[in-house]
Write a structure and sequence with these properties.
By secondary structure, this protein is α/β, with parallel strands linked by helices. It is built from 13 helices and 14 strands. The strands form three sheets. Strands 3-2-1-4-5 form a five-stranded parallel beta sheet, with helices on both faces. Strands 10-9-8-13-14 form a five-stranded antiparallel beta sheet. The relative contact order is 0.12.
């Protein structure tokens, strides 16, 4: 890349990679750097973040509160999909990337920038998510990925920051790379790169370890309307507020710790540690609400859609026609998912212990073996005969 661009908008977190990237972009390509930071739930100190970016060499700093947009446009449909990559990861970071890319493009238009940049490595998933999302929204913009280009070790990055007086949170003693938002927190690097090593207590910030779990556990009730959590313990609550409250409560009980050997899109396995107390708890509750209110064939078909959606989000295809079509389908499935779900939070698990709904498909008069049974058992004989007829024909034809 030899052509000089006058301005670039960098997705800035204040961490090691993006702090070093500001100076590198200026020195290597002569860019004026606009640092863009979105508050997606970490609630950073905006003044401190702006000061750090300016000290690192940014010409301008843009900080946006995008929590409401993140919840309504990304977390809510992910919950409708019970979205879990490889059955465990609630996709917190993967969901945030297309939203950040959307704002990168909008800020680039605002400042007349010719390029956008991110701090992703050349072996991770986020580089794909950013690059593909930007290409989907603004194919005319150049995407620059400093970390992918320089291929430094983290120790070299820390040394570069030290030489240039760039304030960064990482040290050789604390080399973890952390990303967090309303839906979850991810940690990688350092000793976690050895999959035999148990994650140290220092990795965790949102969930209590076994020795600190409250004795006896705790029950909570989540109220859903059309698939959206709207009540906690009977109290109406905005989804953003409810996610925080559930996360804090579930976290006290150690719920949401995930230690995963994950298959990255780029073809390698990585060891990832996640904390997602709200996501794990709300997905468990939402599944229970759906089991009570959705018919069998829809549940079975939806399970396949959930897998495809989770793969698409993980693989950076949020803005693809496929993903957008799946989101429309998922919204349609939620019309009857209005229910209350009671969960017991205890010893690292969120267990569903009760559910009820005005749209319930469970009928006690059909399910009971006691008084009030209205199920016509005599109809079972004819049903079984017709149901088993194909197998009986096979057996006769094969001489069994």
């Amino acid at each position: 890349m030899s052509e000089m661009k006058k301005m670039v908008v960098l997705a800035y977190s204040g961490g090691l990679d993006t702090s070093v990237a500001i100076r590198w972009l200026k020195d290597t390509y002569g860019y004026q750097v606009v640092a863009l930071s979105l508050d997606l739930g970490e609630t950073p100190d905006a003044k401190a973040l702006e000061k750090k970016a300016l000290i690192s060499g940014a010409e301008a700093v843009v900080i946006k509160d995008a929590k409401d947009e993140f919840v309504s446009e990304f977390i809510k449909p992910a919950l409708w999909a019970n979205a879990l990559y490889q059955k465990e990861y609630p996709l917190a970071t993967a969901l945030a990337r297309p939203l950040i890319a959307k704002h990168l493009v909008a800020t680039a238009r605002e400042f007349g920038a010719e390029a956008v940049a991110h701090g992703c490595t050349g072996k991770g998933n986020d580089q794909v998510r950013f690059d593909v999302a930007v290409a989907s929204l603004a194919p005319d913009l150049t995407v620059v990925a400093p970390v992918r280009e320089w291929a430094w070790t983290r120790a070299q990055e820390i040394a570069y920051a030290d030489v240039h007086g760039i304030p960064v949170p990482a040290t050789l003693e604390n080399p973890y790379s952390v990303d967090a938002n309303l839906w979850g927190r991810s940690v990688e690097g350092g000793v976690l790169e050895d999959p035999w090593v148990e994650p140290p207590a220092a990795c965790y910030a949102w969930t209590a370890g076994p020795g600190a779990w409250p004795v006896g556990g705790e029950e909570i009730t989540i109220g859903f309307e059309e698939g959206v959590p709207v009540q906690l313990n009977g109290e109406p609550m905005a989804l953003k507020t409810l996610i925080v409250a559930v996360g804090e409560t579930a976290g006290r009980h150690g719920i949401g710790r995930i230690d995963l050997i994950e298959d990255r899109l780029v073809g390698i396995k990585s060891r990832e540690v996640y904390e997602a107390p709200a996501a794990v708890t709300l997905i468990a509750a939402h599944r229970a609400a759906e089991a009570l209110t959705l018919p069998k064939d829809l549940l079975q078909h939806k399970a396949g859609i959930e897998e495809v959606l989770s793969q698409s989000v993980y693989n950076g295809l949020w803005f693809s026609p496929l993903t957008q079509s799946l989101l429309a389908y998922l919204k349609e499935t939620q019309q009857a998912v209005t229910a209350e779900v009671r969960l017991r939070l205890q010893a690292g698990k969120a267990t569903v212990v009760g559910r009820r709904s005005p749209c319930s498909l469970y009928r006690s008069d059909l399910a009971t073996y006691g008084e009030g049974d209205t199920f016509d058992a005599t109809a079972a004989v004819g049903f079984i005969k017709i149901w088993g007829l194909p197998l009986k024909a096979v057996a006769s034809a094969h001489g069994r």
